[in-house]
TrEMBL record:
The keyword Transmembrane helix applies. InterPro entries: Rhomboid_2. Keywords: Membrane, Transmembrane, Transmembrane helix. The keyword Lyase does not apply. This is Rhomboid-like protein. It comes from the Bacteria. The chain crosses the membrane at residues 53-79, 106-135, 147-170, 182-199, 206-223, 229-245.
């Protein structure tokens, strides 16, 4: 037979049947050493699971990254197997050097980002896949494209202006105005810095410190100072965009609360798309 005890308002409430640990409408006693009553998770609440396949782009889940990656695969295979003279001519026409930027800035800024310096196995190619996938899952495709091409364009213009001023001041030869410059590294570095601001602190700090250390070490090595200074600048551009990116993420989370995502509390539940 059930027993009763006195509620805080003076009423009587059921205490439950002896020997039956859980009954509907009866609060369970807190176990020894616990700070309060044991709480069951809500019925039907999704369990947090790590889904490694979401690290890779998919046509519907991350259309910008997937489509851009497919295009880069095509251009890289073309560069590897086409006539070397033709490839050299196309790369030269896509170069974001001072001369080409002065003649057709928009054309070369876009064309230069269609090639991967170093091929499909380079660090920046791998970084493109994983970093842009993670970023797009958090802020969407159009905003990821804005971060990538914004960083690519700003860092390119800044580095080439430095080259132009150095040539004008006599610090560099005139041939530097037509230095071959193409690739996706500035955009990838900007997206890396941007992604760090959307990660938990235990991931954010090592990512920024690790990538920043590599960028500074390359710059100090002075093997390609113009490009290396552009990498450091690109990473910085991504970091300073954190407040804007967090607002973008929060708006997207509020608008689409059921999209699948890696570990994001409001973006769980769906599988690969």
């Amino acid at each position: 037979m059930g027993t009763t005890d006195t509620a805080p308002d003076g009423g009587v409430r059921p205490a439950g049947l002896a020997g039956i640990p859980r009954q509907r409408g009866v609060a369970a006693a807190a176990p020894v050493g616990d700070g309060g009553p044991a709480a069951d998770p809500p019925a039907g609440a999704p369990r947090r699971r790590w889904r490694p396949w979401l690290l890779l782009p998919t046509p519907l889940g991350t259309p910008f990254t997937f489509g851009y990656a497919a295009l880069l695969v095509v251009t890289t295979l073309f560069a590897d197997h086409a006539d070397p003279a033709l490839v050299s001519e196309l790369l030269r026409g896509s170069s974001t050097d001072v001369v080409h930027l002065a003649q057709a800035p928009l054309l070369v800024l876009v064309a230069s980002a269609l090639w991967i310096a170093g091929g499909l196995t380079s660090a920046y190619a791998l970084g493109f896949v994983f970093v842009l996938t993670a970023l797009e899952r958090r802020i969407g495709g159009l905003r990821t494209a804005a971060v990538f091409f914004g960083g690519h364009a700003l860092a390119t213009v800044a580095t080439e202006l430095t080259v132009g001023f150095s040539v004008a001041a006599g610090g560099l030869p005139d041939s530097s105005l037509e230095r071959l410059d193409y690739g996706i590294s500035f955009g990838v570095m900007t997206c890396t810095g941007a992604l760090a601001g959307l990660l938990p602190a235990w991931l954010r700090r090592p990512l920024v410190l690790g990538v920043g250390y590599v960028a500074v070490a390359d710059l100090l090595a002075y093997a390609d100072p113009v490009t290396n200074w552009g990498h450091l600048l690109s990473l910085t551009l991504g970091v300073v965009s954190w407040p804007l990116l967090r607002r973008w993420r929060d708006r997207r989370t509020a608008a689409v609360p059921l999209l699948g995502d890696l570990g994001h509390p409001a973006l769980r539940g769906s599988g690969p798309r």
